[in-house]
C-alpha cells in the first residue's frame, strides 16, 4: 500500500466514532484492501491516539474526578456508568476502568497510596476477584465492550499471532524447509529471537534470508520503526539478513532496508530459491 493511500484511509477513519462504522463506510471505497488490513490500521491509529492523550486523563486530580463521577453515578442508581464516562471523554473503556479500579483500591485498601500494578493487572484479568461486585460488573462490561484495548483484546491479538505463526510453520513444512523456532533458540541462549531461524538459508528476489519474523498486523511507520529498533536489527546482528512478513500488508515505502538485509513481504513468497536441493526419501 502506498503511503498516500494509507494516509487517505487514516484520515477517513478519524471521521467515524467507532471501528464498525469506519469499516462499513471505508471497505467499499478500497476493495483492494482486506478487511483485516483496515481493522489493523484502525486499531493502530486508535492506540496512537490513546498514547498521545493518556497523560491528559491520568493526573491525580483527573483520576479522582473520574472516580467521584463514577461513585455519584452508582449512588444514584445509574447503570453502565464507567462505559458512559469513557464514551463521554473519548477514552478506551478498559483504560478508564483501570484508573477507576486504582482509585478504588487506593481509597479502600491502601490509605491513599497507589496499589501495586501487579494487583491491578490481576484484577483486570479476572474481575471476579474484585470484592466490590458493582465495580466488578462495571469493569467486566467495559472489557467486553472495548474492541481496541484491555485484557480481552490482548488475548485475541495473542491468539491471532499464534495463528499466523502456525501458518508460517505449516508453509515451511510443506516446502520441506528445515528450521528452528523461538523456544529452541532460547534454549541455546539467545535472548532476542525471530519466529523462525532457517537452518539452510533461502533466497527471495536475489536476497538471502536466514530468519523470518511473522507479524499478524499491518506495517505502519510507527510500529515498523519500533520493531526495527527493538527486534529486527537485533536479529540481523545475530543471524544476518532476514525477512519480515506483515500478513495484513504494509506501507510500501517502508521496504527501504532491502540492500541492508531486511526485506518485507505480505505473504510467504512463491519465488524462493533453495540453497540446497530437496532430498526425497525413498
From TrEMBL:
Location relative to the cell: Cytoplasm; Nucleus
Name this protein carries in UniProt: CDAN1-interacting nuclease 1
InterPro entries from the UniProt entry: CDIN1
Recorded GO CC terms: cytoplasm; nucleus
Domain of life of the source: Eukaryota
The keyword DNA-binding appears for this protein: no
One Pfam family recorded for the sequence: TPD
The UniProt record lists the keyword ATP-binding: no
Signal peptide stretch: none
Swiss-Prot/TrEMBL keywords: Cytoplasm, Nucleus
Organism: Mizuhopecten yessoensis
Chief localization: cytoplasm
Amino acid at each position: 500500500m502506498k503511503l498516500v493511500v494509507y494516509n487517505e484511509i487514516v484520515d477517513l477513519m478519524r471521521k467515524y466514532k467507532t471501528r464498525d462504522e469506519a469499516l462499513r463506510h471505508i471497505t467499499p471505497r478500497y476493495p483492494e484492501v482486506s478487511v483485516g488490513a483496515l481493522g489493523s490500521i484502525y486499531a493502530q491509529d486508535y492506540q496512537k491516539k490513546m498514547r498521545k492523550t493518556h497523560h491528559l486523563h491520568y493526573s491525580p486530580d483527573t483520576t479522582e474526578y473520574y472516580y467521584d463521577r463514577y461513585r455519584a453515578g452508582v449512588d444514584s442508581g445509574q447503570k453502565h456508568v464507567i462505559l458512559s464516562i469513557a464514551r463521554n471523554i473519548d477514552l478506551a473503556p478498559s483504560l478508564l476502568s483501570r484508573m477507576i479500579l486504582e482509585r478504588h483500591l487506593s481509597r479502600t485498601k491502601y490509605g491513599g497510596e497507589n496499589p501495586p500494578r501487579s494487583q491491578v493487572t490481576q484484577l483486570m484479568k479476572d474481575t471476579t476477584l474484585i470484592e466490590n461486585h458493582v465495580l466488578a460488573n462495571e469493569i467486566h462490561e467495559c472489557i467486553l465492550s472495548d474492541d481496541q484495548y484491555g485484557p480481552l483484546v490482548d488475548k485475541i491479538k495473542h491468539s491471532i499471532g499464534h495463528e499466523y505463526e502456525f501458518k508460517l510453520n505449516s508453509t515451511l513444512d510443506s516446502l520441506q524447509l528445515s528450521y528452528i523456532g523461538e523456544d529452541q533458540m532460547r534454549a541455546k541462549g539467545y535472548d532476542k529471537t525471530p519466529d523462525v531461524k532457517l537452518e539452510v538459508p533461502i533466497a527471495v528476489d536475489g536476497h538471502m534470508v536466514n530468519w523470518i519474523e511473522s507479524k499478524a498486523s499491518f506495517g505502519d511507520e510507527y510500529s515498523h520503526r519500533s520493531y526495527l529498533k527493538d527486534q529486527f536489527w537485533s536479529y540481523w546482528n545475530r543471524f544476518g539478513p532476514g525477512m519480515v512478513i506483515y500478513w495484513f500488508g504494509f506501507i510500501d515505502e517502508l521496504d527501504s532496508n532491502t540492500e541492508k538485509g531486511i526485506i518485507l513481504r505480505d505473504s510467504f513468497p512463491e519465488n524462493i530459491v533453495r540453497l540446497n536441493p530437496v532430498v526425497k526419501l525413498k
